[in-house]
Amino acid sequence: MITIKSAQDIERMRAAGKVVEDTLKLLESSVRVGITTAELDRIADAYIRSQGAYPTFLNYNGYPKSVCISVNEEVVHGIPGKRKLRDGDIVSCDVGATLNGFVGDAARTFPVGNVAQETMDLVRVTRECFFEGLKYCRVGYRISDISKAIQKHAESHGYGVVRELVGHGVGRVLHEDPEVPNFYSPRSRQRLEAGMTIAIEPMINLGTARVWQLDDGWTVTTQDGKPSAHYENSVAITDGDPILLTCSEAIL
Ligand code: MF3
Ligand code: CO
């Protein structure tokens, strides 16, 4: 069931989203060669709680940490641990925060030191994919219009679009209807309406779209071991321009 949010609900979602946005900025400035992903998790957890919010992912379906940190060939849902970041890595940070009964959900991929140009291009294009999809975040378009725009941009660069994981409605809980795939699906005929809030999250691979699910029950990796990038924002649909709930950047 898709829930429609009131103007006041959307204000609250922006407040939760601001905590997520600021946590991601803090993670970006904390990323350096030698830091472990567990240390990044602790930094994010402490900041989220300092804002009176709760780290949404902690214990969600049994997830054991507060944020997801996925390095290089890890696509999403990497569990923070002893892995140390190395020069040339890319690190995807996915953050959820619950504040006043509403969830914000967003992700970014950051470079660590000197990253290969082809990998930097993947990171840039993955972000661009989000903004291509955002162009269709208007009343009257369908979810599949967002999906198509993302897929087209990624595949025009020869990248693999992950099929096993999708974006989603977001609101009083992390995952609401509808699904928001990053590839065309005939099932996604739902039209956008004012008050819908969705998380759009392209997960784009440098090589094959194929992924493995690791035995830890969470981590998803590319099958060919090539890098993957992730970029996500929570977005509110309005009668006019969409509202970015987890990003203060001007819409380009
Ligand atoms: N942004 C991710 C998602 O929407 C994060 C979920 S991780 C989980 O699926 F641990 F909370 F499941
Ligand atoms: Co999400």
Percent in strands: 15-25%
Helix content: 25-40%
CATH architect. name? Alpha-Beta Complex
Unreliable segments of 5+ consecutive residues: none
* CATH C-level class: Alpha Beta
The CATH homologous superfamily: Creatinase/methionine aminopeptidase superfamily
Strand order of the largest sheet: 8-7-9-14-15
Q: What's the count of strands?
A: 15
Ends: how far apart? 31 Å
Tell me, rounded to a whole number, the average pLDDT: 98
Count structural domains. 1
Query: Shape, please?
Result: globular
> Number of helical runs?
4
Radius of gyration: 17 Å
Name the structural class.
alpha+beta
Largest sheet: 5 strands, antiparallel
Following the backbone from N to C, one meets helices and strands in this order, namely HHEEEEEHHEEEEEEEEEE
